[in-house]
Specification:
By secondary structure, the protein is α+β, with helices and mostly antiparallel strands. It folds into 2 domains: 203 residues, Metalloenzyme, LuxS/M16 peptidase-like (Cytochrome Bc1 Complex, Chain A, domain 1, 2-Layer Sandwich); 199 residues, Cytochrome Bc1 Complex, Chain A, domain 1 (2-Layer Sandwich), CATH 3.30.830.10. The protein contains 15 helices and 12 strands. It has a 6-stranded mixed beta sheet, sandwiched between helices. It is globular, with a radius of gyration of 23 Å.
């Protein structure tokens, strides 16, 4: 039957996809909101609220929940993103009813116990400290700050030590209520299921809703930014971590398929030009890749480069040289076909995993407005033309990229690593 979508009420939509031959079911409750919907004082409250849903209900402790889940051979987890958040489970088909009941007990009857809250704050504070100390994690935070200056997309999902410490139980209860009063909620289910049976089950739950939406629509980010470099001098580490990038188009833009193909050719695969030249041919570094990140109203195209100090300048020169060749001459037909086949292969592999499909269907529905089947995406890649990809090469704009750098460097070193920004920020 493929993917089926139906509204349970004006706020809640059910998306199901039957996968024949499986013995398992994956189900998630997804909300069109996350850290992007927070203000400065609320940074991290969505993430903390999601954590606390797992810390007990009126009738069950956190330990009771984990023991029951494991005794049923299942997994249950949650996540908080910039624009989508949720909790989900994966279980064997015969155990669906018991996990389902536990799942909604957690969602509807989370206790937000104050003692558990203080313990969880301490756990997340340690996570925040670890992210500050880990150059790979902190570099992403610094990069977001210059790409989305003063905008909630730059907020760290876990919040800051100051905001985290300020949250009370009442704050979390209010946040949870607001999340559940969001106009866009999606229940996504994949696996060995029957659509009509699942729909009937949710209709009987009697989801309550009001016409008032407590979830404020996010402010659009700036579509152009000042070329900026942000860096942190870290004499305690031996390597330089560099992330350059520039703004692109949002997730709804159909050119995302072409950008996926182009990314694989530039640096998103082992056969890519940057990986082959810098790692395989020159042996200058072990980590070099490019990637993209799409949001509902904007996108990013980025690179990530880790090098020893002695190889820093040469490796960056080669990276710019290879990007310049693509900009000047475009890609080859052989690269185009190989990358298209790679994209189709990755989608086919993804299609075999019910949790992956569950996430895909929910996120596509919430951010684009409709789920997109694996077959439809593969067909889109098949219909791409060589000239379509070469036209996207124009996105590579050396005049507009910004960068974040962490390493044993000083401000005086910046001029020697190929960066000439309008503005420099030292952290």
């Amino acid at each position: 039957m493929g993917i089926q979508t139906i509204k349970i009420n004006p706020r809640v939509t059910l998306v199901t996809e039957k996968m024949d031959g499986l013995q398992s079911i994956a189900m998630g409750f997804f909300i069109a909101g996350g850290s992007r919907n927070e203000n400065e004082k609320e940074q991290g409250i969505t993430h903390l609220t999601e954590h606390m849903i797992f810390k007990g209900t009126k009738n069950k402790s956190a330990q009771d929940i984990s023991r029951l889940v494991e005794s049923l051979g299942a997994t249950i987890d949650g996540f908080t993103g910039k624009e989508v958040s949720g909790i989900y489970f994966n279980c064997l088909s015969p155990n669906l009813e018991r996990i389902f009941n536990l799942f909604f007990e957690m969602m509807r009857e989370a206790s937000f116990d104050e003692q558990e809250l203080e313990k969880e704050k301490n756990v997340i504070l340690q996570e925040i400290t670890e992210s500050y100390e880990n150059p790979q994690e902190y570099l992403h935070q610094l990069f977001s700050q210059i790409m989305f200056p003063g905008h909630p997309l730059a907020f760290p999902i876990a919040g800051t030590p100051e905001t985290l410490k300020s949250f009370t139980r009442e704050d979390l209860v209010r946040c949870n209520q607001n999340l559940n009063l969001n106009k866009r909620l999606c229940i996504s289910i994949t696996g060995n299921i029957n659509h009509e049976e699942q729909l009937d089950k949710f209709l009987k739950l009697g989801f309550k809703y009001t016409n008032q939406d407590y979830w404020v629509l996010p402010t659009p980010p700036a579509q152009k930014i000042e070329r900026t470099l942000i860096f942190q001098s870290r004499p305690d580490i031996k390597q330089v971590h560099t992330m350059p990038g520039f703004l692109t188009f949002p997730l709804k833009d159909e050119r995302r398929y072409g950008l996926t193909v182009l990314n694989n050719i530039i640096g998103g695969s082992q056969s890519s030009r940057l990986f082959q030249r810098l790692r395989e041919q020159e042996g200058l570094l072990s980590t070099i890749f490019t990637f993209f990140d799409f949001y509902s109203d904007i996108g990013l195209f980025c690179g990530y480069h880790i090098s020893e100090i002695k190889n820093r300048e040469r490796s960056l020169m080669i990276a710019f040289e290879e990007m310049g060749k693509i900009k000047r001459y475009g890609i080859t037909k052989e690269e185009f076909q190989r990358s298209v086949n790679y994209c189709k292969g990755m989608l086919a592999l993804e299609s075999e995993e019910p949790v992956s499909r569950m996430f895909r269907n929910a996120k596509k529905f919430l951010l684009i407005g409709r789920p997109i089947s694996i077959d439809d995406s593969i067909a889109t890649f098949d219909n791409l033309k060589f000239d379509d990809i070469n036209s996207l090469v124009e996105l590579i704009n050396f005049e507009q990229y910004s960068a974040a750098i962490i390493g044993p460097i000083t401000k005086n070193d910046l001029g020697r690593i190929g960066v000439a920004p309008i503005r420099v920020i030292e952290k």
